[in-house]
Hints:
Layout: H1 3-34, H2 37-63, H3 77-106, H4 116-141, H5 144-172, H6 180-207, H7 214-225, E1 232-241, E2 244-253, H8 259-274, E3 280-289
Parallel strand pairs: 2-3
Antiparallel strand pairs: 1-2
Helix pairs in contact: 1-2, 1-4, 2-3, 2-5, 2-6, 3-5, 3-6, 4-5, 5-6
Amino acid sequence: MNSPTAAAGSRAALSTFCINLLLAAGKILGGLFGNSFALIADGFESLLDLFTTVIVWSGLKVAARPPDGNHPYGHGKAESLASLFVGLSLIAFAALLSLNALKAILEPTPPPEIWTLPLLVLIIGIKEFQYRRLKAVSLALHSTALESDALHQRSDAVTSVAALIGIALSRYGGAFFAGADAWAALIACAFIGYNAIGVLKKSFSEVMDASVPADILEQVRTIALHQEEVLGIHKCRIRKSGLGFWMDIQLLVNGNLTVREGHRIAHAVSDELKNSALPIQDVVVHVEPDDAHPELLQSPGPIAQNPPPGAHSPPG
């Protein structure tokens, strides 16, 4: 992972922290003085945003460290672990908020103040802007932690929308909707939990070195086959660690080439992959004679990521 990339991710996380600090204070004070349980709960959800943003920022800082003797593959997994912690925090908060919302439903309170409505409209607009900005940065940097933080901003905006609806119903819906403020907080918990599960699934996949998406494999295939001497691809394995990819690839070349020529081809493919738009950190290239797998020569089909059980590649 190059330092400019990590620095961009850290800047995005830091600016998010500062904005969430102001929003959390505004929500909690607004809820206390405006008599809104949903707004107070929304404020504490923003405090959780602050906590998770610190976790994301810390994960990115650790992930940016270069490889060393104890971590020859770098520290990229710290980014995925930070994302895991964010997901678990979201689930814990959703459970706690649900219990408090149920208690408020059983013990109705007076409706919130009318000025809490425009306050929430402003907050929702800011949170949506944060979501779109962080989502764009996460896509550009291939950062799961920033993506999970972006989803956290969206879930926070949804809780604010739910609070807005709940407050409006509490004030103008009559006795039947007296508990709408608390119901709004309860419904928002379901959305938070749903987002948390998505974050956890993706983070677990990265920690367990799951395969990258098919479109990335196809890009790698296209780049490798761009070298004229490469006649086919036997196997390609790619895993994501932090903000980058680590991969090994087996190429089919003319079996009559010398070792020196095969070495040159391997380096050419490695250099082209590292210089591509993909955030590839390291490539291990293995060359094999073309007659080892004739069925794969310039094959238009998908790349085999793992050989079938019992299959062994002949030495290249």
